[in-house]
Amino acid sequence: MSCIPPHKPLHLPGVHGYANRKSVAAGELLRFHVSSDRPWQLSVCRLGSDVEGCSDDVVLHRFAPSAARVQPIHPGSYVHVDKGLPAALPLRGLTVECWVKPWRVDVRQSLIGQYDFPARCGWGLFIEEGGALGLHLGDGGAFQADALQARGRLAARRWQHVAATWNGRVAALWIDGVQAGQWEAAQEVRPGPAPLRLGAAAVDGLADLFADADLLMPVLYDRALEAGEIAQRFAGRGLVVPAGRSVLACWPLREERGAQVADASGHQRTGRIVNHGTWMIVGPAFEPAKVGAGEDTESSYDPFSDPTRGHGLRLASDDLYDCRWEATHVFRVPEDARSGLYVARLRFELDGREADYDITFIVRKPAHAARAPILVLCAVNSWLAYASTPFAKNVVDDPVWPRRSAGLESCHPQAPAYCSYTYHRAGQPCYQVGLRMPWPNGSPNALYDPEGSGFSQWARLERRLHVWLEREGYDFDVIGDIDLHRDPSLLSRYRTVVVNGHSEYWSTPAIDGLDDYLRRGGSAIVLSGNTMYLRVSYDEDMSVMEQRKVNGPGHDETVPPVGPPAGSFGEQYHSQDWARGGRLKASGRAAADIVGLETAGWAFADGEDFGVYHVTQPRHALFNEPHPLGLEEGQTFGHAPGGGLPRAIGHEWDLTIATLARMTKQVSPGASLPVPQQGIEVIARGIRRVPGRLDAYLDCFSNLTESIDGLSAEMIYWERPQGGRVFHAGAVGAAWVLGCDPLFGRLLRNVLYRFGVRPGE
């Protein structure tokens, strides 16, 4: 648990918790971190076969009841500089300058200063409520209203150069090289004892007034720059590091990763980023044409070879990636614990009823244990990407999460509630999510839109496969794709690997590991849709997952995009590894090249949106060996008896490149249709006969198009020319029908048989 300087706390009502790790090996210690405003009792349980409830969950340990204990969170990112300007030494002159892109101008925010209201008010540059640029010139003591002056007006979501000058007699404010106003200020100015902060000030000794803004090239001088010098700094567009003895501090922000911010002035005013912030933000001089025509365009662009890119740091008042709560319970997972999904279950009273709050985690086989023939991959990356409202208001009944993970009602209006599908509170696109945070969407009781359908993604959906394998007598191990990221070589120990659920987000090491495993003769069963669509990366201590979606180069940044939140073109480069993010196919790792199918669309407005499989090759071995299914061409499967829910084809789905090419109506200049993979056998077609209200069909370039007679997914068998065999069901809902559709179960038994796996082994 990392410590931070004194910081404004936020106390949350309700019951919330997380484990220190999302995946743990049997025999290892696991810590649970809980904040609760009421008494609770915690039990550690292995999830049983009751996917719709918890009737046969196995309790491994039950802790003694716990008393209420609220642990606050401390949201808000900024840069803390230990070595500020000398507290007691009067200043003879001062210039503060930086480039800033405010994401909001409706509240007061601190850009840079040594300011602690009301007792230690030195100097500070602010965005005042309404957008005026404000300068405070105090003596380092108690706040004096006449020490604060504001002039001009800043615009939201646009880069602007700001400067404040003071020569000992006159102060002035400047916006984009033009003076916004000046006033007489013949007073003594002392920095005072408040810490130096970028993007925050303090109230009553606690970091506060957080800036929702992108900062670039903040600089302090010991004199007032002249008008011509300020005009020159504006013309430099944040690309020129100032030199000379008058420079007291300059932070070029060239690190582009990590928590340290170096000072280029020689005065060693190194800064530390609190609550992470966001690196790899393009500045005002950036030229989008250098990157390419669009997100999917192949490009040799190197962000570190572009002298006009700029080095921005994005701050947000709701940034939080680690709750930093103390551990309330410590549990050693038994050495002989079976691999699978587990929960720490908090039981408490809510509105006179008994309620549960589940903290989901994965138990892996220890390294020395014998491996099962099957490895099942949990889509942890996707669970994290969808983890909106981590501090959701507690409910008793199974919650239904809204489409696009808009989130449940939060327990507090100021609690962070962003994820890969929702914006930060001030409108910044979310590029990162923290692992040391609650993820109530990962609970086995979480449902997903459409309401009333019984559909889910995340743990509840994926458990259906686990339960089916166990009931059918198959031995299997479970890991998260986060574990595959850490050690891609672990696949080599298994006969077949199952990609399950909504496995949308993959890291480069994980996808390369799967490709290498297949090239060496391995086999993969993909019960997923929207598979391997977007790239993620992790920081060194595996505490933050990063992903990046961006708009096209011509997008008006003052207008939010239609669809998932996306940022400025050029910001698709990750801070963790500096490699290109966004769609995996843009980084040369198209899902179709690995597992045969590519993302092709989505629909989740109503339960009736879900379609079924139609047989195209009834004589294929997978329909006949060793268990004949007795299907004829055109017959359906992948649905409950009589054709009702659950049905497999819905939410999101995948198609072959050959089919996507038929759906592509326009090819941009310089682009070309991808070449279809060789040897793919389409054994069934997933069809949705009736269009839904939120249907979206995508072509080869992920542009909107129209379906071909409702064709939404394809089920394939592929003996890859480069090595390895793949069965791909092509739909998020594939595992949903297991246990309800005997035909799909028998088909899966045939697939496992073909891949050398028998029950009871």
From TrEMBL:
One of the Pfam families matching this protein, by short name: DMFA2_C
SUPFAM superfamilies with a match to the protein in the record: Class I glutamine amidotransferase-like, Concanavalin A-like lectins/glucanases
Domain N,N-dimethylformamidase beta subunit-like C-terminal: 316-738
Domain of life of the native organism: Bacteria
InterPro entries in alphabetical order: Class_I_gatase-like, ConA-like_dom_sf, DMFA2_C
Stated name of the protein: N,N-dimethylformamidase beta subunit-like C-terminal domain-containing protein
